[in-house]
Design goal:
It is a single chain. The protein has 109 residues and is an all-alpha fold. It has one domain (2-99). Helix content is 61%, strand content 0%. It is built from six helices and no strands. It has helices at 2-13, 22-44, 50-57, 64-69, 72-77, 84-95. α2 runs antiparallel to α3 and α2 (22-44) crosses α6 (84-95). It is globular and about 45 Å long. The two termini are 19 Å apart. The relative contact order is 0.15. The mean pLDDT is 88.
């Protein structure tokens, strides 16, 4: 996976002593969670079962409203894989709703 590739690259750069920070681990788990939720929507056309996925990944949940605000339904239509950078923006949006951060929008590449 993407996180494993980053981890291996960081290990090479630091002589094999790199470990992911807690924030990086949370962001990595959130990316895995979002990609699984997108696959769920692509498969079923709905978000039933989203909370079970959230519990399995031990992350802050994205609401159904936030899912559509971020354009993740479009990602599902394209069977897209969400990269870490985009997931980090969604993660910040989910955690900081009160701060007025605009919803990041999925853009097809």
């Amino acid at each position: 996976m993407y996180s494993q590739m980053l981890f291996e690259r960081a290990e090479k750069q630091t002589g094999g002593t790199y470990t992911m920070s807690n924030k990086e681990k949370k962001q990595d788990n959130f990316r895995n969670y979002l990609n699984e939720v997108v696959r769920l929507y692509a498969k079923n056309g709905n978000l039933n079962g989203m909370s079970a996925i959230q519990k399995r990944h031990h992350v802050s949940a994205i609401t159904k409203t936030q899912f559509f605000e971020c354009g993740l339904d479009e990602a599902a239509k394209r069977n897209a894989y969400l990269d870490q950078d985009f997931c980090n923006k969604v993660y910040d949006y989910v955690l900081n709703r009160a701060k007025g951060i605009p919803a990041p929008k999925y853009k097809a590449e």
